[in-house]
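Reviewer 2 asked us to include a model.

Predict the structure of this chain.
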Amino acid sequence: MKMLLTLAWRNLWRKKRRTFITVSSVLFAVVLAIVLMSMVNGMKQQMVDSIISNTTGHIQVQDVLYHDEPTMDHAMEYSEEVRQAVSRYGEHIDYSVPRIEGFCLASKEVSSRGVYLMGILPEKEDRMNNLSDRLREGKMFGPDDQFAVIGRGVATQLNLALGDTIVLLGQGFQGMMAAGKYPVGGILEFPLPEQNNTLVYLPLKEAQHFFAAPNRLNSLILMLYDQRMAEELSEKIRNELDQEWYTTRTWLELMPDKVAAFEARDAQVRIFAWVLYVVAGFGIFGTVITMMHERLREFGILLSIGLKRAQLAGICLLETIFISFIGVMAGVAVGFPIVYRFYLHPIHLPDELGEAMIDYGLEPMMTFSIASDIFIYQGLTIFFIALVVGLYPVRKVFRLDVISAARK
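Predicted model (structure tokens):
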């Protein structure tokens, strides 16, 4: 076996050009697969992160009726029972984000428009979605302040500036009239028009007073250290609560339409990936066939001087393993800096592509992923394909006509 390994390794470097061409075909296939899957996974993770950070969080604690009928009448009481149930699993929860929210009519003088009012704790909200980074004018309120921070689109459409008063009208808890007027203390700018044109923020305590819902929340958002624990942890917290009044839901349960879209998209990506693997396999196969025909005379001479077919087939298989391994490792080494560069500096999408991303509720940029499983899976897949293609020289050796091959 040691002799076969030595011969196979020496054969690689006896014809450096041939080895370089074969390794290059494997390298190119690996790099292409890594870049494609990094882009696909990065875009998917961008969608998931956008949903989690901007809307649902990992888990939400809600009133048991709120999901089916999201009205202020089904705002839950933020009781000691909820606090204790959440605190029992504090080692898995990074932080919690309380919210009270609802639709209102916002107006200034004769102008009015529908807005989405959110009562928040600014330090918690900032951890979740970097809200302070969106601030373009004024300042963010504190927990005890009594002014509003609004989206740029709301300010433009109602002709509001810092210091102006915005009047809010809506429906509060159990049919109470919700009305209030607040000075504008800050203006936020979001990348998505839907957020820019609708969002108005108040301190949580002031929003609870506005909706006549003291100590009530529409949802308590839980952000986890490990996203993969969402379903398990949701079930555990639910069992700690009085299920007649409270329930928990993961982001997967809160956004079933998005999950279905992800699954459909994943199926399309898998089909496209296998098309890529087939194309890569044929590219490697074409290279191997060419190199094989260049070596027919060499094989014929080796067999004629007494080398056994099984030994020659073993040498060819070992050469394929060496070349595949070198090609895969080189492909990973070349592919990682490429995707890492785009991971640090996402591609901003212009014009129609950017607008399409905005329509999906995403920032108009193409992000990449550097998850380790991308490199491992793509490398192993191309390595396996190269090994399968490498069986062709083995088969050819056992069917080779020694006399005709030696005369070539």
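Residues 2-52+258-406 form one domain. DSSP finds 16 helices and 14 strands in the chain. We have added this to the supplementary material.
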